[in-house]
Specification:
Elements lengths: L3 E5 L4 E4 L5 E3 L16 E3 L8 H6 L28 H18 L6 H4 L2 H22 L4 H5 L15 H11 L20 H21 L5 H7 L9 H7 L4 H12 L2 H4 L4 H15 L9 H17 L8 H13 L9 H7 L2 H5 L5 H13 L13 H16 L6 H13 L6 H13 L7 H25 L14 H38 L5 H13 L6 H43 L1
Antiparallel strand pairs: 1-2, 1-4, 2-3
């Protein structure tokens, strides 16, 4: 016998169960229908909804009834039956049906109809109902669970479409096939095994809903991701084979690798939405350098530094989460121009942030504003304390990428090392992110040269704007008078190499502190073994893959600098000759 749906004269939605019971499913009270006011019913069509003609003719009173496409009752939890009441099962069935209908809305996003918070509360209620049913069932004779007489025998195949029929069969019956009853036997909804299965099915359905929305990782992307621990990670190759989506793939990979999604209850879909939105922000101004490829490179480099130094175990989950997010968003919606340009042009964001760390403040603020939208809110399940720590870390780390803080930052870390102070985690992570942000001169020559060309082009583009506005050229922004090779030598000598050296010393110090703490926790009986182990580890130097590349790249730039110098001298000599010829002509006249 099939489950059929009807509409009464008064507009109520009714479900006729095979037991003969009639349930009012117009709202989440799920009352049994005992009066005769529903004797005249308009049958719903086989898809569980009103025919098109009936739908146009009948209108529900919004004050008393909910339309078929109104899901606001899923946010009403005040009138829910107690989980140990029989109506709780029927109410769960009704709400599951509405969630199913919301999932079937092709023209609207599911979470625009049902918020994540309401969905979670509904699922929690369903699971409580299922758990209560399971407890009751364990008090009964075990054979009852196996009795096919206690199960709804079938759902007529023509009553509903396949997907709806499958849903109903999974919710109410053990199986739709190979189970037949005599026509005079009325199946009874006594077995709770189906209710248990319904709970399991809901959980699986929600998991599939998230995982199905997660992009399948292309084979070539997976191949590149296997080199994640390489210092010279081929980020350009990854962006090419991922069709310009390198940041979302790497971001998702690292979040899963360290179980961030599970620990902080982040839905796959929300994380994907967030990463896609951040990628869109990086593409807003079509920057040659400050784009999603740069963000991907900084994220991978940050991970490499911490992971290869063995510092992941030194960090808590919230610190790892904040570090990854900081790397991902540290240049979000970058304008392709410097803070100095914003000050000179008196831009809107320069006025908002009072000329201090203009872009860095904007990256942070824009990201947290983005996460105000539930669809992108990857931190909505954090506790108050977790949120406070997360926000503090992100703000401190991203602000530290402002180059105006560079020397102050290095001095602070040097003092902590020399004074034998405990290394402050936020300051340590800030230096790691800062070094990752300026690390391209420490990669192999092909990567470094490509990054240099992209950065120079972005600088020159700013110089063109400055020229149009009648402003003086910012450093390295004049495309006709910038010694690229010399600028890179200076950048390596005075900025990159000292920063990486201090960071390396800092990591050594942290490692010593970790070993010291571990040794202090070792029992007296293991002191000798622990001491020898610690000593051997102390003697092992921390890997510094950047050192060799810095030396090699600097040597290449020095060769190019000589060529630049000769070329410039030749141009000056030619210019002097032209000037002399011009003067001679003027004298002859």
């Amino acid at each position: 016998m099939a489950i059929r749906y009807y509409r009464s004269k008064t507009g109520r939605m009714l479900a006729s169960l095979p037991t003969g019971e009639m349930i009012d499913v117009s709202n989440n009270k799920c009352k049994m229908v005992t009066d005769d006011s529903t004797s005249s019913l308009s049958s719903l069509n086989q898809y569980g909804g009103l025919s098109s003609s009936s739908r146009h003719k009948e209108k529900l009173d919004d004050n008393n009834h909910l339309s078929l496409h109104n899901y606001s009752d899923l946010s009403n939890f005040e009138t829910l039956p107690l989980v140990d009441h029989i109506d709780s099962i029927k109410c769960s069935i009704t709400r599951l049906a509405k969630i199913r209908d919301a999932l079937g809305e092709h023209n609207q996003d599911f979470f625009s109809l049902v918020t994540k918070k309401d969905l979670k509360k509904n699922v929690e209620y369903f699971l409580q109902v299922m758990e209560n049913v399971l407890l009751d069932e364990r008090k009964q004779v075990s054979l009852r669970l196996m009795s096919e007489d206690d199960v709804l025998s079938e759902v007529e195949p023509d009553a509903v479409p396949n997907e709806v029929r499958n849903w109903l069969s999974m919710t109410f019956t053990r199986s739709v096939s190979n189970m037949k009853k005599k026509a005079e036997d009325k199946p009874k909804f006594k077995s709770v095994a189906q209710a248990i299965r319904a709970g399991i099915m809901v959980d699986r359905m929600l998991r599939r809903m998230s995982s199905s929305l997660e992009s399948n990782v292309p084979a070539q992307v997976s191949k590149v991701l296997k080199t994640l621990n390489d210092w010279n990670f081929e980020v350009f190759a990854m962006n090419e084979c991922s069709e310009g989506q390198a940041l979302r793939y790497l971001g998702f990979e690292l979040m899963q690798k360290f179980n961030i999604l599970s620990k902080f209850k982040i839905q796959n879909l929300v994380m994907q939405n967030f990463l896609e939105a951040v990628e869109a922000g990086y593409s807003k101004y079509n920057n040659p350098y400050h784009n999603l490829i740069h963000a991907t490179d900084v994220l991978q480099t940050t991970y490499h530094i911490l992971n290869n130094a063995g510092l992941m175990s030194w960090l808590s989950s919230i610190e790892i989460f904040a570090t990854f997010v900081s790397a991902i968003i540290h240049d979000y919606e970058h304008t392709g121009t410097t803070n100095n340009f914003h000050m000179q042009t008196r831009s809107e964001i320069a006025l908002v942030y009072n000329d201090r760390a203009i872009l860095e403040n904007y990256h942070i603020s824009a990201t947290f504003r983005l996460m105000l939208n539930d669809s992108y809110n990857i931190i909505q399940e954090l506790t108050r304390e977790e949120y406070k720590e997360f926000r503090h870390l992100v703000i401190e780390m991203v602000l530290a990428t402002d180059m105006s803080f560079h020397f102050t930052q290095l001095k602070t870390v040097k003092n902590m090392i020399s004074l034998n102070e405990t290394i402050d985690k936020p300051k340590a992570l800030s230096l790691v992110l800062h070094c990752a942000d300026i690390s391209h001169p420490s990669k192999n020559w092909p990567l470094h040269e490509k990054w240099t060309n992209l950065l120079v082009e972005e600088f020159f583009s700013q110089g063109d704007k400055e020229k149009e506005l009648g402003l003086p050229f910012s450093p390295l922004c004049d495309r006709n008078n910038t010694p690229i090779a010399q600028s890179q030598i200076g950048f390596i000598n005075f900025i990159v190499e000292p920063s990486l050296n201090v960071m390396g010393d800092m990591i050594d110090k942290i490692f010593e502190q970790i070993l010291s703490e571990e040794q202090s926790r070792t029992s007296k009986s293991d002191i000798n073994d622990s001491s020898s182990t610690s000593e051997s580890i102390k003697k092992k130097p921390i890997e510094r893959p950047w050192a060799q590349h810095l030396t090699e790249n600097k040597a290449k730039w020095q060769i190019l600098a000589e060529e630049e110098k000769k070329k410039k001298e030749q141009e000056n000599s030619e210019q002097i000759g032209e000037n002399k010829n011009e003067d001679k002509k003027n004298g002859d006249n």
